[in-house]
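User: I'm curious whether this sequence folds into something compact or stays loose and floppy. Could you predict its structure so I can see for myself?
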Amino acid sequence: MRNRLVMVFAVAVGLSMSVPLVAHHTASTLYTEKTITLKAIVKTWRWSNPHCLLTFDVKGEDGHVVQWLAETQAPNTAYTEGYRANSFKPGDEVTVTVRPAANGRPFGLLSQVVLADGTTLGNLRGDGARGR
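Assistant: Here's the prediction. I'll summarize afterward.
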């Protein structure tokens, strides 16, 4: 009986610890399913765990500049798609494709970046799946 109680307790603890991890890695409530492509100027590129971050400026049709923030996967995943710690520097002209935030703010999940020379940096779909 005691062994059974210990087993039930261990399973309960294990399940309670896994729920926040699963919740952390879902993007369904944060981002729309559509993607948008933006011409941008890089401000910063942060290569760090748990997610890399690209900050960039986008000039709107009205002439106003809006600063965007796009998150990627962890460096180990981004690396397999061609991203590197030195992929971007401030002032670089890029074309960024993101899955925008569902709330309309200038934030999104980075899908792809095309550099000024035409080089395409992988496809980080933002849903945990890699794809080219």
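Summary: The first strand starts at residue 36 and ends at 46. Residues 2-24 form the longest helix (23 residues).
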